[in-house]
Amino acid sequence: MTDTATLAGLDPATLADVLRLAGSDGFDRIQEQIRRTGGCTDPIRLQGSTITRDRETGHVLHSYSTATEPGGVLRVACGNRRASRCPSCAWTYAGDTYHLIRAGLVGDPAKGTPETIRDHPRVFATLTAPSFGPVHNRPGNRPCRCGTHHPEDAPELGAPLDPDAYDYAGAVLWNNHASELWRYFTIYLRREIARRAGLTQKAAREQSRVSFGKVAEYQKRGAVHFHAVIRFDGPEGPDSPPPAWATLDLLADSIRAAAARVQVDVPPAGEEPARTLRWGAQLDVQPIGAFGHGEEITEQAVASYVAKYATKAAETTGTVDRRIGNKEALALLGVPEHPARLIAACLDLHALYPDRKLRDWAHMLGFRGHFSTKSRRYSTTLGALRQVRADYRAAQQREALGLPDPDDEEATTLTLAHWVYAGHGHTPGESWLAANIRRDIQLNRETAREELAGGAPDEQGR
């Protein structure tokens, strides 16, 4: 337990709950549970039991019940990817994303990609939204259009120079259809590859594959853009080399041509005109070099960049990370003017485009897609990475209890489990304790990262 000096400044209710916890018989176990979740902000509370028996004799080898736990519950991590909701679980999610993306760049046989993947042409592409009106920005060494050299953390960055002339409806409709723009981009990309290779689409598919992993990011102006690793593979995916015609230049040219072809038509509704949505002109396509060879865009940098943004969402623009039901809530929540206008546009447009569910996704400024996605053969999956971690922890637990591995052909154990949901979250005192545990874990990670000798640590300090 931290010393009493750290309790200064706590509100009376939290202080009382901290003192209650510290004096309870189950305090050490509560602290252990919270530490095992990594200091999760909003843990899931479970009630239930497990019994492991010898299959042949019926003898109980081990039993566990939450009836013996403080409060009769077991706390497990919430698993939320948003750093604004749970920094601890978001750190784990970012780490998994890092290893998923990196495995598709450097190869990892344990994650489904051979090391020869490094020889495949691959690029890091950024596809952006078009302009909906001039905004305050930092254009290199030049001043903003308003005549000011804005500092990097200036609150007005991304806000329109003339809010009344800004196309707020167009901005949220573009966000709302961004996933469809990406889908059409992947379709046109394969067509452009075939055309440049002088092949039919069927022949191109029989000779090569295109794999990708992408992440969505919000610009300060509130528009979504996508960062994607796009890679050429052979017909069998990452295990086979791409054909000789599948060059880096052909891939880059095809990406540019495909992005230029994409358009999504939005019909008129009410006073809103018909719109044709397209990608913005700022398309960036850069080759990815092998790590450690001096290239500016390296495998390490790309995987770290994608992982960094996998845990962020629209709250980086000043909005909130939960649904907003009406405009009156905007003032109560203290949402800045620009994101507030974007949210208001979503609420106004919902009645005109009910199938687009703009009211449900107003807090996301209209975007309703997945933030991190990949093609089937890019590398491993987040689910597989989670399962490896769960299997490792289960093996540790079995070893500590002296139980056999259930996958062992000679094992004769049978485990029966029953769990029910019993709520979520912390009491005020538990929240304070979790925050301190999370801070200590973060400090230990940073210390370990600084002590690593040789090689560059990854973005997650792993």
TrEMBL record:
Pfam families: RepSA
Entries under InterPro entries matching the protein: RepSA, RepSA_streptomyces
Domain of life: Bacteria
NCBIfam families membership: rep_init_RepSA
Name under which the protein is recorded: Replication initiation protein
Species this chain originates from: Streptomyces spiralis
Taxonomic lineage of the native organism: Bacteria, Bacillati, Actinomycetota, Actinomycetes, Kitasatosporales
